[in-house]
Amino acid sequence: MRLEIDSPGLLSALLESMGDYAVILIDPDGIVRLWSVGAERLFGYSADEMCGRPVVELFSAQDRESGVLDATLHAALQDGRAWDIRRLVRRNASEFWAECLLSPVRDARGRLAGFLKVARDATARKRDEEKMMLLARMDPLTGLANRTALDEKLVDIAQSSARTRRMMVVHMIDLDHFKAVNDRYGHAMGDELLRHVAQRIVHVVRSADFVARLGGDEFVLVQSDVDDPTVGGRVAAQVVDALAKPFRIDSAELHIGASIGIAVFPRDSVDTKQLMRMADVALYKVKSDGRGGYHYFTEDMDRIAHRLGTDRAMLREALDCEAFTLHYQPQIDTRDGRVVGMEALLRCEHPALAGYPVHELISLAESSGLIRDLGVWCLGEACRQARAWRDMGIPPLRMCVNFCAGELNDPRLLDRVAEVLERTQLSSGDIEIEITEQQLVDYSRPGDTVLDDLRSMGASLAIDDFGTGYSSLGYLAKLPVDRIKLDRTFVERVPEDPLSCTVALAIVNLAHTLELGIVAEGVETEAQSRFLEDTHCEAQQGFYFSRPLDRNVMTRWLLGRNDSGNAKAVRGGMLR
């Protein structure tokens, strides 16, 4: 049996089956001529109420005023159909989002007979889309804008600033010591700290200013409608001060800080991406100067940043091609002349980096994220050499390896140390970790530390450059220290200078009182060595005994001392 398409019964059945859809037939003038059951359910009007009325009454007031119906009808005629999502109005005057498809209807001769509009409720979909759009532009941790929203905002503000001939100030904000908090207290505490940081920044700036989080511990502040670029410095100082104050979270008191780089539109650049890069260059300048402040971008800083970028690449290359080496300097027991320790000192043979002082190489490694790889290599190489000397019959000595705060914050440090010791068949008691007082300032925290864990493994801890400042006594009280190294500045003028003699004697006596070992650095003359012997300084290190030597020369030096059979007797004949 053939179905009759123009059967009223069939049409009614079809419309009944589409209960979730509003099917509306309107004539060429926009008057409703057919109103389905689905339309009744969606809009709340009966067919009797709507047939004969303009369909535009279902549109929002804003859409009616804009003439959107005419535009939609025209689009349907041009393209054969028109699809959109817009606000429509129910009988109770409530608005909702609807997904609509409008198609022209033609008679058998092809003449326009009207339009068929099919609509369904899209409120949930629209709400989900809006939520997704919001989330796509929002940092979920802090509620601030994210990088996507920042990029859009920068372009908008730059265009507005160009029209009004005003300035825009971009602040690149990087938190100081945040990684240490994250590593020591866990990511949950770190996340909570980031939320507190976001609140403080927002509280300091104007409501018209724009704050975003790029990720990690990086934030960006954008000041718009600025007529004096020095305003940026004043606000940056306020942000630095606000973030320098302690954060109290749960039972912990956290101390961080902030470094800020500033770039100004259009003075520094009219390109927003370039402007961000300039702010980052200025930020690096602050961090290289010691952190905890702000700096404006300059062309000189840009040139420095390019050079540093090249040098970082060279550092990675030097590490990959094993262009680093270690030299060794012995520590001599003052009482009997035995070699009791050996400090491993980093050297670099890469042509592009050979002119760098060692401390600058370390800083470069820290800033480029290579310090952990470099530190693991140093520890492994030093322990391998200690094992080689022991296998030659050279008496055991402690291998002293310098660490920095970036290495101590490595969550895998203990595993790395254990792996090196197992590979070289040494015990943790065979190594001593040396860390300067300044590095302890960057690392220190209340409670347990990785230093405690290293100590529990059996490794010993020495504070290098002791006496140069930074609240030394406080660290001696808090940390599991085994030994202090008297800085060379207190040795170089003894025994001629009475004040230097007094200070050196006081530090040696302090070590004795605290039952700590002590090593004097920078011993260059017999008179200095004799003075330290008279003060009962435990051990000495310096050019008087030996310069830092590569592994082959140091091996011959050690074997020669063994052959002499009397270490004390060869004091004056040591290799310098």
Structure description:
- There is one protein chain.
- The longest helix has 22 residues, at 299-320.
- The chain has 3 domains: 8-128, Beta-Lactamase, CATH 3.30.450.20; 138-297, 2-Layer Sandwich (Alpha-Beta Plaits); 310-566, TIM Barrel.
- An 8-stranded mixed barrel has the order 13-14-15-16-17-18-19-20, surrounded by 5 helices. The chain has a 5-stranded antiparallel sheet with strand order 2-1-5-4-3, sandwiched between helices.
- With 576 residues, it is an alpha/beta fold.
Please render the helix and strand layout as text.
Blueprint: H1 8-17, E1 22-26, E2 32-35, H2 37-43, H3 47-50, H4 61-66, H5 68-79, E3 82-89, E4 95-106, E5 112-121, H6 123-136, H7 147-164, E6 167-176, H8 178-185, H9 187-204, E7 210-215, E8 218-226, H10 230-244, E9 247-249, E10 252-254, E11 257-265, H11 272-288, E12 294-296, H12 299-320, E13 324-333, E14 339-348, H13 358-367, H14 371-391, E15 398-402, H15 405-408, H16 413-424, E16 431-436, H17 437-443, H18 450-457, E17 460-466, H19 472-478, E18 483-486, H20 498-513, E19 517-520, H21 526-534, E20 539-540, E21 549-550, H22 551-564
Parallel strand pairs: 11-12, 14-15, 15-16, 16-17, 17-18, 18-19, 19-20
Antiparallel strand pairs: 1-2, 1-5, 3-4, 4-5, 6-8, 6-11, 7-8, 9-10, 13-14, 13-20, 13-21
